[in-house]
Amino acid sequence: MSDRIRLSIDGRELTVEPPLSLLQAATADGTPLTSNVGCMGQGVCGACRCLVRREGEREVSTVLACETSAENGMQVSFIDYFTPHRPHVYDIAGITDSWRIADAVRDVFPEADHCRHCGGCDRACPKGLEVQRGVALAAAGNLAGAADIFDQCVMCNLCTLACPEHIWPNHLGLMVRRAVTALGLRPSDLIARLAEIERGQQPIDFSGRDDHDAAAGAARKG
């Protein structure tokens, strides 16, 4: 009995025999799984998101119960799922011009430009993703880079819960991943450059003076 551990899950005091995941420990006393369960241990659905405080620590962290081992003295609270207050509606199939996909993402998620860089989304992510950086890349038009960051997103919604600007980063990441997969994007730096030219930023000088001056300078050095 000495190797058994005690922990609290949603206010229930449990004594279990390790090794067990938090999800397994939650059923150790016969309590049925009626919520916060999906892939049953694969770590791909985000349904078992929970808050955890370890013994002797003040900080509370977000984890997936199916991927986290039960430890003695843990305090665990599962987090209910919630839905967006403003659904982001879009149709990837309706975006036929892949040169304009970055503009389409901005139209659907204009909040992304208002990121406060507070880091709350990064701290909330149970998978340890660089969520804030993914949002910044998407806002800058680097959709391929953003898609790479959000590739392991399990849509748990915790980054959205933590965002004061209501960006819904995981939903932004999902749109970006869908767009990259469906449309085979052109190079993001080229798309951004063409957009700058259309807005009149950093205009191109077609006079050839720079090339002429550079050639003259090289001749003088020679």
From TrEMBL:
<dbReference type="InterPro" id="IPR017900">
    <property type="entry name" value="4Fe4S_Fe_S_CS"/>
</dbReference>
<feature type="domain" description="4Fe-4S ferredoxin-type">
    <location>
        <begin position="106"/>
        <end position="134"/>
    </location>
</feature>
<feature type="domain" description="2Fe-2S ferredoxin-type">
    <location>
        <begin position="3"/>
        <end position="82"/>
    </location>
</feature>
<dbReference type="InterPro" id="IPR017896">
    <property type="entry name" value="4Fe4S_Fe-S-bd"/>
</dbReference>
<keyword id="KW-0411">Iron-sulfur</keyword>
<dbReference type="Pfam" id="PF13187">
    <property type="entry name" value="Fer4_9"/>
</dbReference>
<dbReference type="InterPro" id="IPR036010">
    <property type="entry name" value="2Fe-2S_ferredoxin-like_sf"/>
</dbReference>
<keyword id="KW-0479">Metal-binding</keyword>
<dbReference type="Pfam" id="PF13510">
    <property type="entry name" value="Fer2_4"/>
</dbReference>
<dbReference type="InterPro" id="IPR001041">
    <property type="entry name" value="2Fe-2S_ferredoxin-type"/>
</dbReference>
<keyword id="KW-0408">Iron</keyword>
<feature type="region of interest" description="Disordered">
    <location>
        <begin position="203"/>
        <end position="222"/>
    </location>
</feature>
<dbReference type="InterPro" id="IPR012675">
    <property type="entry name" value="Beta-grasp_dom_sf"/>
</dbReference>
<feature type="domain" description="4Fe-4S ferredoxin-type">
    <location>
        <begin position="143"/>
        <end position="173"/>
    </location>
</feature>
<protein>
    <submittedName>
        <fullName>Ferredoxin</fullName>
    </submittedName>
</protein>
